[in-house]
Amino acid sequence: MTVSPEISLADRPTLEDPTRCVVRRIGPEMEEYNGRRYQNCNVLHFDGTEYLFSHRAILTLVTTASCNAACKFCSNEITFTPNGPFLEMNPDLGRVIDFAELAGVRKVAFTGGEPTANPAKLARLVSAVAPRFHRARLHTNGFGLAKTVETPHGHRELLPVLIASGLTGASLSIAHHETTTNRHIMRIKGRWGGMSEDDVRWVASHASDRFTPRLSCVLSSEGVHKLKDILEYIEWGVSLGIKKFIFRSCSQIPEPFQKGTAYSDYNEAEYIPIEPLVREFGMLDGVQETYTQHKSDSHVHVFQLGDDVTVDIDESSEEEDPDSKIRRINVMPDGVAYTSWIDPRSHLFADDATRVSDTIRRELPLLSAL
Ligand code: SF4
Asked: pLDDT tens digits, residue range 305-321?
């Protein structure tokens, strides 16, 4: 592939290694590249391949596929999520981090399965990865946040250790503010019954200029689905010290990319459109819509409530890559990096092709038939 000599050699940021460098920056003005028009992205060369990369892309590390819950809407059970040992820093992950850093990724997220189910491994991973990014967020149902891990200063609770390592946010999955309803929807296994009010209050007490906790709620007919439910949920969270909330509807996924599980049927039946809720919420006194984004695969509405509470109401419908511009990198527990949540053929590095074929055959037979 040829690259336009838009920037001089002297402008290239990583000339020390000509096999890994940014060769063109495309800003907010539309520019033509390979017959298509793009904005806000970089063209980079990395180990012999050329990539086109969005300025807003995010890196997500799926630390493990296992979870102590079995939420009826869990996206891991709908599309491919190859299993593997808990993700750890090794040469493969190091290559992905180098790539993301060169491409200009500023945000990293740690998710699962349940990342805190293995506190020591999560602490090691976050301390190795988070310092290389501006923002680092953990997605968790809260299971192991208060468990202790060994540090040079003795045993410490996991959450403050992660914050000291560079974690800047935690998104706590709670599907309903009433414990029994939450447990029913999230189908939490074992003696731990989900986050208690004291647990949420304890997480909220760690909020600072650098660290923001957030409550994350998937809309469902058995749980939160009306304006009244959303308001009760927010009131409950605020009373515990939380100031940031996200409400999401289940993801919609094209059929060839869907695992044929009961979860797929549930998502289909449970689809709750957000637009009526967004309209009603936006009309409330003291509420101001501060950001809206409508793209073919995601609708995002951000509201300010009073002085300091932020509420997102979002909907996503995953789709195939429309134009080869990389918008995300997801590293799965087997160590393979992908640029799509739904398409396992989107692996970032060519040398992962064999592992990817195995994943497709095992998890998405409909796709291998295409
Ligand atoms: S807590 Fe998250 S990973 Fe676990 S089952 Fe629920 S949605 Fe899936």
From this structure: 999 999 999 998 777 77
d(CA 287, CA 352): 48
| Chain-centre distance for alpha carbon 239 | 27
The angle at the Cα of 55, spanning 314 to 7, to the nearest 5 degrees, equals 160
Asked if 61 and 331 count as a contact pair (C-beta separation under 8 A), the reply is: yes
- Domain ranges, ordered by start, for the chain: 1-46, 57-316
Q: Would the pLDDT of 7 be above 60?
A: no
> Model confidence at 8, in pLDDT bands (50, 70, 90)?
very low
Q: Which residues pair with 59 in a beta bridge?
A: 108, 329
- Above 50 in pLDDT, residue 9? no
b/e sequence 57-93, b meaning 16+ C-beta within 10 Å: bbbbbbbbbebbbebbbbbbbbbbbbebebbeeeebb
**What is the pLDDT of the chain when averaged over all its residues?**
91
Position with higher pLDDT, 295 vs 154: 154
> Cα–Cα distance between 174 and 365 in angstroms, integer?
33
Radius of gyration over every alpha carbon of the chain, rounded to an integer in angstroms: 21
Dihedral angle, C-alpha 39, 40, 46, 50, nearest 10 °:
-10
Instruction: Name the residue of 60, 61, 66, 71 whose CB sits within 8 Å of the most ligand 1 atoms, as the mutation to test its pocket.
Output: 71
Tokens of 80: 């491919």
Q: Left if phi > 0, otherwise alpha if psi is -120 to 50, otherwise beta: which for 305?
A: beta
Using DSSP's 3-state secondary structure scheme, residue 132 falls into: helix
Please provide residue 345's backbone torsions phi and psi, each rounded to the nearest 5 degrees.
-80, 0
Q: Homologous superfamily of 57-316 in CATH?
A: Aldolase class I (3.20.20.70)
Q: How far apart are CA 139 and CA 116, in angstroms?
A: 9
What is the whole-number distance in angstroms between the Cα of residue 202 and the centre of ligand 1? 21
- Using CA atoms, how far apart are residues 137 and 63, in angstroms rounded to an integer? 13
Give the mean model confidence (pLDDT) for residues 351-360: 93
Cβ partners under 8 Å of residue 132, min gap 6: 97, 101, 108
Question: Which is the closest atom of ligand 1 to the Cα of 112?
Answer: 3
* Protein residues with CB under 6 Å of any ligand 1 atom: 67, 69-71, 74, 76, 112-114, 141, 173, 186
